[in-house]
Amino acid sequence: MKTSTWVASLLSLLAAAAGNAWGHGDHHHQESSEMKSHMEQMYQLKQQMPEEYRIMNRTPLIPDDQSQRHGAELFGRFCVVCHGRDGRGDGPSAKSMEPAPANFLDLDHSGIYGPGEKYWIIGNGSGKTGMPGFGQELSPQDRWDLVNHIYRLQQEEK
């Protein structure tokens, strides 16, 4: 192979590889931008919540066996369709949702909200994310049992 042909082939391969890398970079940039927007929405929602929910660092209901069983039952009825059986955000409806439902096992993401904020979201929904509010369907105790169950799912993952 002549040197000029070899150099031309090498340049062609490098150009193709660079184009492919740039394409992946754009995709990564788009995902990064979407995640940044999603995180901004989460923090905006956090700021809209009443302070008494933002400062709660534990649930007022002891996460005993009864609370855990009841929370698991409610999770199965109200939450699994979006959040999945294990709370990974992979329920049957999740594929058609944008943004995807919360993955409670991603502690960097789920940890943005404390117990009171999770309780508030269950009752009021979270706006642009598609999470409906269940304040009419679920009593305060039901919502706290759900929060206890979500924390149990996270503990089981460790």
Q: How would you explain this protein's 3D organization?
A:
The chain is mainly alpha-helical. It is 64% helix and 0% strand. The protein has helices at residues 3-48, 51-54, 65-83, 107-110, 115-124, 140-157. Helix 5 packs across helix 6. The longest helix has 46 residues, at 3-48. 20% of the residues are buried.
Strand fraction band? Answer: under 5%
At the first level of CATH, what is the class of the largest domain?
Answer: Mainly Alpha
How many structural domains?
2
Q: Might you state the CATH topology name of the largest domain?
A: Cytochrome Bc1 Complex, Chain D, domain 2
CATH architecture of the largest domain: Orthogonal Bundle
- The span between the termini is 58 Å
Q: Structural class, from secondary structure content? A: mainly alpha
What general form does the structure show? globular
Largest sheet: none
- Looking at CATH, the homologous superfamily of the largest domain is Cytochrome c-like domain
Summarize the structure.
This protein has 158 residues and is an all-alpha fold.
Name the features.
158 residues, mainly alpha, Cytochrome Bc1 Complex, Chain D, domain 2, 2 domains, 6 helices, 0% strand, globular
